[in-house]
Design brief:
By secondary structure, the protein is mainly α. It is built from five helices and no strands.
Length: 112
């Protein structure tokens, strides 16, 4: 008969986790906010006009349409009434506004 003797227990090594990886893998709500602050600081160093009121106003103007549609879609999704025609309505309204501005150039404000 042969008997086996158990070996020495293996040592569990404690690996240090990188704090950046730990923050990105966590479910903490401030992770995205911290990443946004880091990006703003990085681009502010690269360009002196990045952290200016005019630039943030420009970004706000450019994202207004998408934000309005996203808020509207949020209410649609919350009420469980998924509607896939939002993008087609957006395209149709853009084409109609462009055609109106082209044909009635005197009153282009009405087309917007």
């Amino acid at each position: 008969m042969s008997t086996t003797t158990p070996g020495a227990p293996a040592m569990v090594s404690e690996t240090k986790v990188n704090p950046v990886k730990r923050m990105l893998n966590s479910d903490r709500p401030y992770t995205v906010f911290v990443a946004l602050i880091v990006l703003i600081a990085f681009f502010s160093v690269l360009s002196p006009v990045f952290f200016s009121t005019a630039n943030f106003a420009n970004i706000g103007r450019q994202t207004t349409l998408v934000t309005i549609i996203a808020v509207g879609m949020t209410f649609v999704i919350i009420s469980s009434e998924i509607d896939l025609s939002v993008a087609s309505i957006l395209k149709l309204s853009g084409v109609c506004a462009a055609l109106f501005m082209e044909n009635f150039s005197d009153n282009w404000v009405l087309g917007a």
